[in-house]
Design a protein that fits this description.
single chain, 108 residues, mainly alpha, 0% strand, globular
């Protein structure tokens, strides 16, 4: 893993680490940052992620839903991010539908 992500993760700055992982656009790093967050931190981290990363986050979460045994944890991420950005999701529903489809279908 990239060294400059270790410090934010070790200092419980999961929102910062996740933002850095989005800039790197490395799927494995994004997933690692998602899975490293404590369940109690998910609402704060999800609300601090800018909406412009919505599509990328939903792609990573959809993939994790299909391949991870931690279904409830991943669904919590989906729920909290959608709660935090619900208005923007509604406004952009046509363009975001492909990103939401795997979560919506529930093929996990």
């Amino acid at each position: 893993m990239f060294l400059y992500l270790v410090v934010p993760l070790s200092e419980d700055q999961h929102h910062r680490a996740l933002l850095l992982s989005f800039r790197l656009n490395e799927d494995s790093v994004i997933k690692h940052c998602i899975m490293s967050a404590k369940p109690t931190d998910i609402p704060d981290v999800a609300s601090s992620i800018p909406f412009r990363y919505f599509q990328r986050l939903m792609e990573a979460l959809s993939n994790l839903l299909e391949n991870s045994p931690y279904l409830e944890f991943i669904l919590r991420w989906c729920q909290e991010f959608c709660k935090a950005h619900g208005h923007s999701i509604q406004e952009n529903s046509r363009t975001l539908h492909p990103s939401l489809r795997p979560v919506e279908q529930g093929n996990y």
